[in-house]
Specification:
The chain has 19 helices and 28 strands. With 559 residues, the protein is of the alpha/beta class. The chain folds into five domains: 2-112, Rossmann fold (3-Layer(aba) Sandwich); 128-186, no CATH class; 192-307, 2-Layer Sandwich (Nucleotidyltransferase, domain 5), CATH 3.30.420.180; 313-419, Tetrapyrrole methylase, N-terminal domain (Cobalt-precorrin-4 Transmethylase, domain 1, 3-Layer(aba) Sandwich), CATH 3.40.1010.10; 422-544, Tetrapyrrole methylase, C-terminal domain (Methyltransferase, Cobalt-precorrin-4 Transmethylase, Domain 2, 2-Layer Sandwich), CATH 3.30.950.10. The chain binds S-adenosyl-L-homocysteine (SAH).
């Protein structure tokens, strides 16, 4: 139960909102504040006090005994601006409560405990099953005590501030080890279990065979990544249900694919039934890896276990145009998931404060694209979790394509889209991209001018809205006037043109002009230039490209 205490009218109004939102979880304590806090402290697991922190500190101080038993206390200020986790941040759940209360009341959660303040990942939030002394090891990481990492299975882990040796250990293993006293065990999804079954083999038998096989081989079921079988068994109830109970996906392969896999124990029975001499071994081995347990059989089922090779992880992350609130939550999560960060130094600066301790940063200056692409892929192929960053969207005139051109299918690639400059600029200008539009980079460093010109011409003829990236630099000053002249061959001089510099950055500026009036000298490399089509208008100071709705035409006609 959460005890709610307030004193003033404003506090009481906020208190009532909380009580109304969480009727089952909360209880209101009325009466003199001191008595209310003491009663709630004795009776509730958590308190939310709509009082100054000072008042609450004085009231609860004499009541505190043990942080494992004391309630978590959150204070909300009179203005409802902050939800402060005051006492019991972790054990009392006050940190999470501050976040929840903050969301509900529109208040900023204030959390000052070390883990959250330094952005250390909780071991239980790394995305892997974890066993053993999780709280003790987390605390040791926080307190800066040496924690050793023992990777029996190399796996792309997030950054962890680990030492070569220490009294505490994080062990990464798929073996069924019993964690030692000061040890937390992370379970990577490293095992693929190939299964076969005769028709209507019961789930108990399939599951029993899989679990028994793992047990005898000393492997942990929590490291199973997937069950695998032949297409013909994709609907086999016992196999489908076994995957369901294990909580892992079932993947299937065609008999032809499986027949091509070399296996130690082929046999005639599956060949006759489904057209491949091996189901269990072949479907476990098809993605490569080490056969830990060759085919085992029960009356109606078979299984084999493979440890698949670790696959590195390359996240290609767009940071957005500049402002922190245009960086997506997913981009932030990927930055904190990466153990190695690769990027242009000025982009690294943009997000350095978000990185977790232990992140290795490979930053380089302008022009080192090839090196950045190479090293990001090379690190991922080494089994690391890597983030390759770019401003805006990392795939738009940026690092995604050179990196993926370097990469083979031996790494996992995750793309996180970002708000590209054309969109950031459009939002400032109005609605210039309301109809078909195209982006064209005017940089002829890597693209011959003839190609660029052909594309500008095509856009001009097709009456498409154009956003120019890389429009003009000190050494490249004739391209923009040339491109604008081509467009002017097909559009009136009065066509609206939006010029946006440093969109969403502190010195953002945006202005509207026309094709005839644009002075190219006001454009630089921090700028995008958006040229309207023949229907684009300036309306109330905003750039609007009509969608062409019939109802709007009718309205125009009636005027
Ligand atoms: N990947 C980036 C584009 C890189 S090309 C993106 O998706 O936005 C670099 C060009 O993008 C610059 O020369 C400029 O034309 C444009 N640009 C990038 N960020 C910008 C911003 N915040 N405001 C205006 N233009 C920007």
């Amino acid at each position: 139960m959460i005890g709610l205490i307030s004193a003033t009218a404003a506090g009481t109004a906020a208190r009532d909102r909380l009580a109304a939102a969480w009727p089952e979880r909360t209880r209101v304590y009325d009466g003199p504040v001191g008595d209310a806090v003491r009663a709630a402290f004795a009776q509730c697991e958590q308190l939310v006090c709509f009082l100054a922190t000072g008042a609450v500190v004085r009231l609860v101080a004499p009541l505190l005994s043990d942080k494992r038993a004391d309630p978590g206390v959150v204070c909300v200020d009179e203005g409802g601006r902050f939800a402060v986790s005051l006492v019991g941040g972790h054990d009392g759940g006050a940190n999470e409560l501050a976040v929840e209360v903050g969301e509900l009341l529109g208040a900023q959660p204030v959390v000052t405990t070390a883990t959250d303040a330094v952005g250390l990942p909780g071991l239980d939030t790394l995305g892997f099953p974890v066993e053993g002394a999780v709280p003790a090891v987390s605390r040791a990481l926080l307190d800066g005590e040496p924690v050793a990492l023992v990777s029996e299975v190399p796996w792309p882990l997030p950054p962890l501030p680990v030492a070569p040796r220490g009294a505490y250990t994080i062990r990464v293993t798929d073996r069924a080890v019993e964690p030692a006293g000061h040890e937390a065990v992370l379970r990577p999804p490293s095992l693929v279990v190939g299964v076969g079954a005769s028709r209507n083999a019961p789930v108990e038998e399939v599951l029993g065979l899989v679990e028994g096989t793992l047990r005898e081989a000393g492997l942990s079921g929590r490291s199973i990544a997937e069950l695998a079988t032949v297409d013909a068994k994709a609907e086999e109830p016992g196999i489908v249900a076994a995957a369901g109970r294990l909580g892992v996906p079932l993947v299937t392969y065609s008999a032809v694919e499986l027949a091509a896999v070399a296996v130690p124990n082929p046999s005639d029975a599956p060949l006759a039934a489904v057209g491949t001499p091996s189901v269990a071994e072949a479907s476990a081995l098809i993605g490569g890896g080490e056969l830990l347990v060759p085919k085992r059989k029960s009356a109606m089922a078979t299984c084999a276990v493979v440890r698949r090779p670790a696959r590195g992880r390359l996240a290609v992350v767009g940071l957005g145009p500049g402002a922190r609130d245009l960086l997506t939550p997913r981009a932030k999560a990927e930055l904190q998931r990466a153990r190695v960060l690769v990027g242009l130094d000025q982009y690294v600066d943009q997000i350095r404060d978000l990185l977790r301790p232990g992140t290795r940063i490979l930053e380089s200056g302008l022009g080192a694209e090839e090196e950045r692409a190479r090293s990001a892929v090379a690190e991922a192929r080494r089994g690391q979790a890597v983030a390759l960053i770019g401003s805006g969207d990392a795939g738009v005139y940026a690092m995604a394509s050179p990196a993926l051109a370097e990469a083979c299918d031996d790494i996992d690639v995750v793309g996180v889209p970002g708000v590209t400059a054309a969109l950031a600029a459009a939002a400032i200008l109005g609605a210039p991209l309301g109809h078909d539009h195209v982006s064209i980079s005017l940089s002829d460093l890597h693209t011959p001018w003839a190609v660029i010109e052909r594309r500008v011409r095509a856009a001009a003829e097709a009456d498409i809205v154009v956003t120019f990236y890389n429009p003009r630099s000190r050494g490249r000053d004739w391209q923009l006037p040339k491109a604008l002249a081509i467009l002017a061959g097909h559009r009136a001089g009065t066509t609206p043109v939006g010029v946006v510099r440093n969109a969403s950055r502190p010195d953002e500026s945006g202005r509207l002009t026309t094709l005839a009036a644009l002075d190219p000298a006001t454009v630089d490399m921090m700028t995008v230039v958006t040229v309207g089509n023949t229907a684009t208008r300036e309306i109330a100071g905003r750039m609007v490209t009509p969608r062409g709705y019939r109802w709007q035409e009718a309205q125009e006609g009636a005027k």
